[in-house]
Amino acid sequence: MFKTISEALGDKHIQDLSTQEIIDLMESGLNMKFSAEQVAILKNDFMRPLLVNACAGSGKTTIFILMALIAIAKGNTEPNEILGITFSHKSRVDMGERFDNFVSELSDTGLDLSYGRPNFTTFHALFYQLLRQNPEYRTAQILTTYRLFIRDLSDQIKHPSNVITKAEMLEEMFDLNGYMINQGLTRDGILPDESVGKPLNEAIKVMAEYSRQNHTDEFYEDYVDVINKYQELKRQNGYIDFNDMKLLLLESMNDPQYLQYYQNIMSRYKIAVIDEFQDIDNLQWQIISKLLSPETMAHLIVIGDDDQSIYSFRGSNPKYILNYKRLLPNAQKHNLSTNYRTGEKILKRVIPLIKKNHVRLDKELLSGRKDQGKFVLYSSKKSGFSDDSKMLRRLVKQINDPEINNDDIAILVRYNSSRMLLADWLANQKIYANINNAGAILQNNLVYRIITELMKSLWQDKYKYFADQANRIGFRAYKDHTTKVEARTDDKFHKLSKYLLGAEAYNAETNTPYKRTDDRVKVYFNSIKRFRTRMDEADNEESRTKLAKSLIKDLYKAATKLTDKYFDYMEEKNFMSKVEVNDIKKYLEEELDKYDNIDDFFFDEEHKKEILSDRMEQGKQEHRIQFLSLHQAKGLEFKYVYLYGLTNKEVESAGKVLNDWFPPEMPFDQFTKQWKLVYNQSFKFLENALKSAHIDDYKDITNNNAFNPINIEKTLAKKKEFAMFHAFYKEVENYSAFIEEERRLLYVGVTRAQQELCLRIAPDSNPLLFDLNLPKKKPKNTPTKEKSQ
């Protein structure tokens, strides 16, 4: 029964009620029962900065809205004097809807708070609003992706790679650029600040440390040209992108006049709350801490969960949530430690994993759903994709179950390659996945396209497919050769057969080293041509079908043989994973084996691609399923969650121990002592761990005769050796921090599940999975390999 406002007030005015009385009224009006942790936060007096360290599923948005409503009810502030900042449009909309719903429900008790609304916004929207106050940017439009200018930007790449496309090079360039901007490492948005005014080779050394990939110096030279061109195109067309909003706003704040103007706009806010605080980056903090008034900063409220800090690749920096008390002196911290989403039987499995992290805020993790949930573990002796997996059979059964809404099921993966094969396999069974990433559709995958386009070129006599993949047959040099053949014959070939005739004449005149490659292509082409003739001449359907299946096998064999050297090179240089390449090849070969007409295969593949690429088409299908990366899944929840494809691609068992020996944020002097201890006691184990982690700097140390690891103190007194060892220390620290972020990713994945979590363990599984409290193996005579609890 609701407690009405008149019953609570008696002769009092609403503002005369105590905070506890208002909390009681809200519990009644909203039909909620607040925990002791929630009540402690709701009693916040807004006199000191506050960090709400809220675990996954703890209802942090609800707490924020209730805090705002209590402040309004008590007369501490007007609704429009409250600012709520978050990172995504979805979160912003959720805040607004939650506020409106609570106000509506509370009005039934007689508590009328409908006379205004806080400003719920995102960092991007707020910065854009402020930047447009500057006449220079008043008419600027938002550019959401550099791909609008992809042709012009591609033209700036003067040193194309032998192994990745220009589009892929651009993606890596803009990843690097975004990371440096968000970390506050560059003011001009191009080069690192520490290298400005120095020769380009100095800047390249610095950028190489920030890049997640290994690149040549020529890549970084092209990077500078590409980003300069990008800046020019934005200026010419009146665009600013999301990173510009931060850089330009921060730059304009250096002008006291503009800073004062922005601060005057922001001075209306008496209460400011930053949601998802673990995701804030350096620039966002620099800007917001200058924009808000000292009075508002003195009781700034931030809400987040350090255990869900998973966006370091974007430049997010968890140091702000981890060091909030040092950041704002006198700050207080309250925990929300009860997860109301994830069943206890699931949550208890992931708690040991996240508690292995050294760098985290201390909090208990409890479930509000006692004795609920199901953790289902599958084990397999086979690595990679397997269509006879028991876990996948369970998935298909649930998708086809009329009692289960498809929207309640999600498959979560770590890498795009993992979802590709499974999504394609499901599509073969008329179950279509909302992949949320065009690059994760198998038909868009580079390995798949190389093989199938070469098969098409040989079967359909299409030169375009062959030309597009020529660099995968003989690298850049062979691609240049095909271009020269075109130029020599002054003909834009449409048929592969025409190219082969032109190449024969060109090779006879020039005696090029690529005659042998052209001859190989010709042998395969003629072989396929003979198959076509034999099929046409077959006198019965059985013979024709048998020949057709042999043809398909020969097409596949020709495409893979022509590209063997390319794939070997890519795998050797770690541009591609050998396991992933082999998985895709094996899957494709098995798919082809189901057909006795190659044209039917090509048609079906194109049809699948159309549906998987079009959300509207997916919506028309009877069955569909959410396919998300662990990063994309953050903030979402599902009744049934499948963690799939969590492999040891980046984390190997031997390297994991580095996190135990050398936790992130370990001071250099302590690292030195620990290094000496581990080196003396477990050198071979240490060396193996460093190799597994791909930390190559240790070789410079061990190969340096001047470096004495036993007498480390004396060695580090030398300038060169000190610099060498300090660089090694930073590399180990970064890897250790990476291990902890990978644990946080797994934690995020598990805590998306409400009722059921399914997980498969295989020989190639990520070793961090064994940090989970996995169900014990059943006795050997148990017939099934499924384990649940």
Automatic annotation (TrEMBL):
Q: Which Gene Ontology terms cover its molecular function?
A: 3'-5' DNA helicase activity; ATP binding; ATP hydrolysis activity; DNA binding
Catalysed reactions listed for this entry: Couples ATP hydrolysis with the unwinding of duplex DNA by translocating in the 3'-5' direction; ATP + H2O = ADP + phosphate + H(+)
| Superkingdom classification of source | Bacteria
Where does the record place the UvrD-like helicase ATP-binding domain? 33-343
Its EC number is 5.6.2.4
Q: Name one Pfam family in it.
A: UvrD-helicase
PANTHER family given in the database record: ATP-DEPENDENT DNA HELICASE SRS2, UVRD / RECB / PCRA DNA HELICASE FAMILY MEMBER
Q: Which family does it belong to?
A: Belongs to the helicase family. UvrD subfamily.
| Annotated protein name in UniProt | DNA 3'-5' helicase
